Amino acid sequence: MTESVKRKDVSTFRRKLLRWFTTHERKYPWRKTRDPFKLLLAEMMLQRTKAEQVVSVYEELTRAAGRPELLARLRITSLRRILRPLGLHWRIDNFRDVSRELLRSCNGILPRTRKELTSLPGIGDYVAGAILAVSFRQREWVVDSNIVRVYRRFFGLTTSKEGRRDRHVVEIAKLYANSLKPREATLALLDFAALVCKPRNPECQNCPVRKYCAEA
Predict the structure, then answer these.
(1) CA angle at 151 for the pair 28 and 208, rounded to the nearest 5°
(2) E strands of the chain, at which residues?
(3) How far is CA 43 from the centre of its chain?
(4) Do residues 91 and 127 lie in contact, with contact meaning Cβ atoms separated by under 8 Å?
(5) Which residue segments constitute the domains of the chain, with CATH numbers given?
(6) Cα distances (Å, whole numbers) of residue 22 to 8, 51, 151, 185, 192
(7) Which residue in 9, 83, 152, 182 could disulfide with 133, CB within 3.0 to 4.6 Å?
(8) Which residues contact 59 (CB under 8 A, 6 or more apart)?
(9) How far apart are CA 39 and CA 134, in angstroms?
C-alpha cells in the first residue's frame, strides 16, 4: 500500500478501537434511531458543528419535520428558527432541497449507494459514507479532517493540507471500513478522534492504540 501502511496494521487498529468503543461510546439521540432520514438530518447538522450543540436542535427538527414530506412543507421561517442556534445559514436551503428531491426522485426513501446519495443536494462523500455505514451497515468509508488527523498520527502519514481527498488516505479508509461491524467501526473512529486523538492536547496516556502509534 501507499505510505507503507499494511492491511494487517489497519486491521489491528480497527480491532483495538472496536474493543475500546464497547465502553466509551458517546450517546446521542441520532445513534438510537433506525430511520436513515433522521440520521441524514443529524449528519447535515454535524458538519463543522460540535455534537453537543446539535442534540437539542436535532430533537426539535425531528419532532417538527422528521420525514421528507414534513420537511419539504415546513415553512422556511420555521426551519431557520430551528437551525439558528447552529449558525447554519448557508446550509438551510440544503435541508429543504434534499427532502424535496427525495420525494421527487426517490419516493421519499434514501438510496443505498454512494453515487445516488452524493447526487442529492447537500450530500457529499462524508455524509454519504456515514449514512451507508451507520444506518445501512454497509462497508463504506468515511473521511473528514478529524479522521485524517488520526490516520496521519497513527500511521505516520504525510498528507496534503486538507488530506481528505489524498489517494492513500482514502485507501486506508476503505480498508478500515472492511469490517464485519461497519456501524460500530465507523462510530468508534469518530469517538476516538473526539475523545482521545484530539486536535490539541491528545490524551495519549489513555490511548488504546498507543503501543502501535507512529507518534508514540
Answers:
(1) 65
(2) none
(3) 6
(4) no
(5) 2-26+139-212 (1.10.1670.10), 29-135 (1.10.340.30)
(6) 22, 19, 21, 11, 12
(7) 182
(8) 29
(9) 9
Threshold 0.85, pTM exceeds: yes
The model's pLDDT over 51-95, given as tens digits with 9 standing for 90+, comes to 999 999 999 999 999 999 999 999 999 999 999 999 878 889 999
Question: Minimal CA–CA distance to 190: which of 24, 53, 77, 78?
Answer: 24
The alpha carbon dihedral of 132, 189, 23, 201 has a sign of negative
- How many other CB atoms sit within 10 Å of the CB of residue 191? 17
Q: Take residue 107 and report the three cell numbers written for it.
A: 419516493
What is residue 1's predicted lDDT score, i.e. its pLDDT? 45
- 36, 131 contact by CB (below 8 A): yes
Q: Output phi, psi for 94, to 5 deg.
A: -60, -35
**Which whole-number Å values give the CA distances from 136 to 63, 133, 160, 191, in the listed order?**
23, 6, 31, 19
Per-residue DSSP letter, 5: -
Buried b (16+ CB within 10 A) or exposed e, 170-183: bbbbebbbebeebb
